[in-house]
Amino acid sequence: MFSDPAAALKDSSIHVNAKMHIDGTCRTNYSGTTACYGLVIGNKLIMANVGDSRAILGRRGRWNRMEAMDLTVDHKPEDPEERVRIEYSGGAVAQQEYDPGQFEGPFRVFRAGTSAPGLAMSRSLGDLEAEKVGVIPDADTSTWEFKRGDELLLIASDGLWEVRPGPVANTHV
To answer: How many domains does the chain fold into?
Structure first.
């Protein structure tokens, strides 16, 4: 059925992005999403991602400890290859300036000389304004072979990965 599953996954991100623009799924020009998805074929896992949603594989390792293996790489604007494309397209990569000279938070994509769109990733689906300054909907793919000890596949958005844990309450009664 699939002669090139990785290519099919890549094509799907381009197709979804175009469909979002055509059918009005994105009701504003400043709206987009990330995506992380995959296919299991036999003992192989083919993963694709756009943006900063991420997949990890939990594998039992030495001494029966669970080890996390990154299956995808976040698309961040400060990454050299991503930054070059953005700047070549008329974008700028910088941290948000909240007070004059006070830069904080993650690096973001801006239209040069403006404070928009301010996207904290270099790839996205559906964001028309960000696309004008080099943010692309192209997925990266990776292929993994399941091995003994693989027990968990976790796919989540940056809402999980970028949370800073707070103090843990004492639950002893």
So the answer is: 1
